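Quick one:
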Amino acid sequence: ADECRHLPVGELAFTIRRPQSTMRSSGYLNGTARTQKPKFAPHGALVLEDKSRLSHSMIWNWMRAFYDQQGVGAWSNGIVPNFVTTNCCIAKMYAQVIFGYLNDVFSPAGIKQFGADPKEPMYIMELGAGHGKFSFLLLKQMMRLKEFFPKTESKYPFKFIMTDFTENNIVFWRNHPSLQPFIKMGIVDFAKFDAEHDVEIQLIVSGKRLNKHTVKNPMVLVANYIFDTLRHEAFRINDGKLQEALITIESDRDAEPDLNDPGLIKRFRPKWTYKNVSHKDYFTGRQADLNPILERMVTRTALRKSSILIPVGGINCLRNLIELTSGRLFFLSGDKAYNHENEMKGLRDPHIAIHGSFSMMVNYDAVRRYFESKGGFSMHTPYQDGFKVAAFVLGTPKNVVRSARMAFLMALQTFGPDNFSTLQRSIKDMVPNPSLKLVLSLLRLSGYDSDVFYKFKQFLIDKVGHPYASEKIQQDVRKDIQEIYDCYYPLSKSKDVAFEIGRLFMSMKDYKSAMRFFVDSLRDCGEHHVTHYNLGLCHNYVGDFASALKSFNTSLEIKPDYHEAGEWSNRMAHKMNQAKGNVTGNK
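Output:
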């Protein structure tokens, strides 16, 4: 543990995995290379894999390789869409639900019925934290509520764990400046965690190993757009008979020398065939607890002709964490999902959506049945269209989980993350000239989200400056901007929020404030001739001509043909010469 405590950045402790023989029963390949020889189909296509069980397919190795190679660039370069799950609005909603559960756990009834230990924190773990932005935003929203934290014997009643299977992302988090205050406070830790296989969690900062002997309280697991990228099994029910979907992978190329190349995601073509199987013993080993779920679906009259996906990778993760937490788990998840069985009606091939990586629809109805089979319950957003959010609760009686249930009802069931995402996008696309009050209202509704600010930056810059906005409105905007910047998580150099805030302050003629943000822009997003040019303008307007000249000259060093900087450099040199002449004359 002491060695783990002092691991330098880039040297990570590994989690404990199930013995290989146990994993073999599920058929998982666990990232190992595929060596089968491709062949050609009669119609001429190159067949990379023929009639494979979906969870055994090589496509899952491509998924792992894609995220391992891309690292944070999968999101910072705009390859994988993620706004709906990484904005302040959804973080605020989740924080309210988690805060409610935190109070339920450490209430007198919770301590009595859950066996909660007030001497130990409750662990909140994000599965597949990726770029880390959502973890940061959720921590920010949780700390806004610190005045109302339940009384425990530790300084903070929770500890947040950011996890991913790839070391690249963890190194990025540990070095990210926005997370450093939370690391120093001791409320955030990191772990390399393979969702489908690992059964223990080795924390990197504290060195603590989490298992069923060391986890004393219920755990909150957060997973957004994760289960849709873990292994699935696919079936259809045709007149009451269960049929397994088998995947064949084809390529248009004459040869594919590397069957583990994630570039295959862009060009593979899936073909599907079906064979009759038994719902009574399809799953074996630890996964045998899924057979009753299949049986329930097969015997449902409403599903006599339907297409079913079972998120076996995700449920395998839940099974391991349920064991780790001694059966006390609160799972909060957002995904492209089916909440209701009627969404699965109809015979159709499984759909694999390509977006840099790939994803499949998540069967939340199956996850619900899995939790209910173990005595748990669930809550779901009510609408069938769009992004879904669900909470699955095990080991904590429903009549005691009152605050979390109320928070889910108030925060998610009427106006959820998908509604907010649609609203902000519609205003941007359909309102060509929104009023200042409309944009400010949207920013405040978002929870002061920096991406929303960035989308509407030009409207604010154009309308906040005199004579469009009163002094009162400008003061309110200053407060809003401080909140936005407090929740800013620098990720992409092409989205320079600090620079745009600097321009906004320039429009209000607050040049000293603008300079601070331009300096931050240079730090976070690198040298740019326009940033130095704007700094020069600000220095000029506050009367610091020497600093202005330096900034304009730096701008010219970066871009020698930048005409505006050249003119202002000459102007500043002239002003400084004039000032020297006046001083000499006075002497």
